[in-house]
Amino acid sequence: MRGESSGSMHRGGGVSEATVRRLSNYFRILEEMEREGVETIASETLAERYGITSAQVRKDFSSFGSFGRRGLGYPVRGLRERIGKILGIDQPWRLVLVGAGNLGHALFHYEEFRRRNFSIAAIFDSNPELIGKHWEGVPILPMAQMGRLVSERDARIGIIAVPAAAGQAVADQLVAAGVEGILNFSPIKLREVENVFVRNVNLSIALESLSYSVTAHRKLRPL
Amino acid sequence: MRGESSGSMHRGGGVSEATVRRLSNYFRILEEMEREGVETIASETLAERYGITSAQVRKDFSSFGSFGRRGLGYPVRGLRERIGKILGIDQPWRLVLVGAGNLGHALFHYEEFRRRNFSIAAIFDSNPELIGKHWEGVPILPMAQMGRLVSERDARIGIIAVPAAAGQAVADQLVAAGVEGILNFSPIKLREVENVFVRNVNLSIALESLSYSVTAHRKLRPL
DNA sequence: AGATGTGAAAGTTTTCACAGCC
DNA sequence: GGCTGTGAAAACTTTCACATCT
């Protein structure tokens, strides 16, 4: 599977992972501005709100074409829609969730996913005690049904929320079932597979990065 | 607060966020090798296991000094201990968790945190119905007790697992209570504060990065 | 005048390649 | 011989600065 980096070219220029992450953030800021009733925005204003430079904002947009009007700025709504289209969040996505433990439960109920048009079509778990239950009407199914369900419901992304030991096997099953992307919460490095994108979210590594910074900072300024 | 980047210099050379993330991964690989009984490892082997170049591995280590022996490689155990010390995970950390919803619940029970010496000393929530309950003996307390508890229990990191609307207020309270680091799961940009490090984990942005890649890939190779 | 879009410059990170030590 | 540690080169990302368009 393709690793942490984007892995895909687009038009003329390659688009970095960092650019895509910023697009998501621009999208959120633009939504907010739309609610505030703002109709036009300059790269400078957007940049200030985000805490980056206006050149960065313009360069990010320029990888995808020309959105603004010189002398005026960008139309808030049009820009938001365009970014949504680029990110692919202008359409609903059906996902499957593997792992009905504590983390899976939290992800299933995560409001931000719903707001962004991501809906979970089925949940899979290997624990027989959970199978047959429903969360808000969505069934918890045995792993063996993954292949059927992914194609029937046209789910294109799978979320892995199982312990490390089961992670690779689950990834293999998701790939066999035909997903095109995997959001992996299990703390392991998955084998790469052609045409399947992977993003890893490692909660513990984020915390270790903090403990590093706090520790290093303390060493510089003791007590 | 310091943003997504490290924000702190260390010794002679600045150490990038990316290097610190890789250190966490090296640590995990080394733990695994220790369990396998391997005593010495070459940068090349470590690199292969991680899927990066051996030069990257050696450069990462060289920011912190000289760990290996030319012609031989690195002692697995010694290297793992040294990295643990750099990351600050050689000692236990006490955290406070704010937000006893679904996400907070999942984080509280997250095994990987415990395995890495991160323990949650108290939970805070604004919902009166939750206050007074316990999770595995850890009390859910009203927000007003945050200051007292953080200093009493010497908690140095706070986790924010509340909805966006409450995020900034919670961050302010954590800073006032005296934490040195914040792991922020709420999908907002927190105001920066001197000497407080912040790491943001935005679950939805990770998913949007996937939907971008899958969408872009489809456009290149339709159907 | 005002703000975009973009080549060129500056800065950062990764890879190369090899001197130096075991 | 084997493998580290590290300057130098290459690749990539961000910022500058200005020509260009409304």
Could you tell me which chain pair has the largest interface and how many residues each side has? A-B, 68 and 68 residues
Major sheet details of chain A? 7 strands, mixed
Please give the share of residues in helix of chain A. 40-55%
State the strand order across the main sheet of chain A: 5-6-4-3-7-8-9
Radius of gyration of chain A, in angstroms, nearest whole number: 20 Å
Can you count the beta strands of chain A? Answer: 9
How much of the sequence of chain A is in beta strands? Answer: 15-25%
Gross morphology of chain A: globular
What multimeric state do the chains show?
homodimer
Written overview of the protein:
The structure is a homodimer of 223-residue chains. By secondary structure, the first copy, chain A, is α/β, with parallel strands linked by helices. Chain A has nine helices and nine strands. In chain A, the strands form two sheets. Chain A has a seven-stranded mixed beta sheet. In chain A, strands 1-2 form a two-stranded antiparallel sheet. In chain A, α2 (43-50) packs across α3 and α7 (146-152) crosses α8 (164-177). The relative contact order of chain A is 0.11. Mean pLDDT of chain A is 93; it is low at 2-13. At the A-B interface, α1, α5, α6, β8 and α9 of A face α1, α5, α6, β8 and α9 of B. Chain A binds a DNA duplex (22 and 22 nucleotides) through α3.
